[in-house]
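Sample entry (213 residues):
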Amino acid sequence: MDVSGFYDVVHRRRDVRGEFTGGVVPTDALRRILGAANAAPSVGLSQPWDFVLIRDVGTRTAFRDHVQAEREIFAGRLDAERARIFARIKVEGVLESSLGVVVTYDPRRGAPAVLGRHAIADAGLYSVCLAIENLWLAATAEGLGVGWVSFYREEFLRKLLDIPHQVRPVAWLCLGPVGTLQATPDLERHGWRHRTPLAQVVHEERFGRSAPR
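Predicted structure, serialized as C-alpha cells:
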C-alpha cells in the first residue's frame, strides 16, 4: 500500500484565512468530509459531536463582527513588536469562505456511563478534536481549505446559533474552495512562531530524557 498520499495531505493541510475563493462546495464532497468527521474515534463510542452548517450571510456577518472585536481586545494586550506582527495576520475567513461548520461537544451523549471517561473528564472533548482533524484532512484531500476561528466567546456563539446550554461550541470552521494552500503556515510566514523540530518533543521512557538519534 502506498501511504505517501496520506502523508502528503497531512503536510499540505493549512489553517486557511485569506485564500478562500467563495466557490461552491460540492454536495457530494461535503457529505464525504462530514462522513470522515463522523467516523472519528470517540471515547465509549459516544460520538459527542454535532455539526452545524452556517451559510446565512447575516449570521456569518454577526459572528465576523464579534471575532473582530475579540481580535482588538487581544491586540491591545500585546507589546509593540508583537502588535506589529499581529497586525499583518488575518485571523478569520468567515465571509470569504463558502460556509461555516460549527462543531459542538455534548457531554450527555452516551451518558451516564461513558466507557473510558470515568478517569479523564476531557476524553469526550478530545474525541471532538479528533473529528475536527478528520474533517480537516478530508477537506484537504478534496482540494478544499479549512480555517479554525478561535477568536470568540463561547456564550456568544451559543446564543447566536441557539445551542443548548449543556452543549459546548468547540470550533467554528471556515470551509470552501481555495485559490492555493500556502507552502508555509501563516504564523511562520509572518514571524509569529516557528515549528518546533521533532527531536525536541520526543522523549525516551521518561519525560525530559531525549530519544536516541
